[in-house]
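Methods — Computational structure assignment.
A single polypeptide chain was analysed. Its primary sequence is given first, followed by the predicted tertiary structure written as structure tokens.
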Amino acid sequence: MGKYYEEAAIPDEMRRGYDVYDRIRSLGIDLGSFEDSVTSLKGAGIAGVVFHDSGLVYLSGAGGGEKQMNDDPERVLHGQKAASDIADSMLARLHWAIACGGEGGDLNDVLYTVKALGMVVSTDVEFNSGPAVVNGFSFRWQSVFGGGMGEFASDGEDAGGYAGVHARSAIGGFTGRFSLEPEIIVAIPQALAREIIANRGWVFPLPPSMLDKVSAARAS
């Protein structure tokens, strides 16, 4: 398990007993490379990830899918697949945000998931499938971190725990040329959050000077 996870104040009964990266490999999720994923904040107006010294980690939303949503089952499936793909991309973003600086943390140090918000694009005033669409995101997250609706659950229970289960809002009615935009908040150990902030700041992508620092340390 994660270096910081072992010392975290969570009940023994609720601790994960598996390596998150084993599930990621089993699910075929590509986390990308350092070179492609760890970039400069220069010229960017919005952060992808913000660390708080309490241990809360805020991920900005990401849009996906090619079709606006309605209650047609095939259209809902399109939205669910898009939501699952967004979860994969956000897992990759979170991995590099936690791990890129060499502080010793990684996705195994995610203690639990706090809150997700799913905004579903639909101009149909009768649309009623917003929660079903966002389930594609939430259940993928549970597949990695644990939860009764994830791909490793059986009869509504996950022997790996429930760290992927989160509070959530799922609402439709937005406009746009895509299907949905979810965002999520997770918790990591406070000691890890403070180590990250002290070493390279609270924001990802990295400020230029911090990117230079991290890249130089990685190359040494």
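Note: Helices lie at 20-27, 34-37, 73-99, 130-145, 190-200, 208-219.
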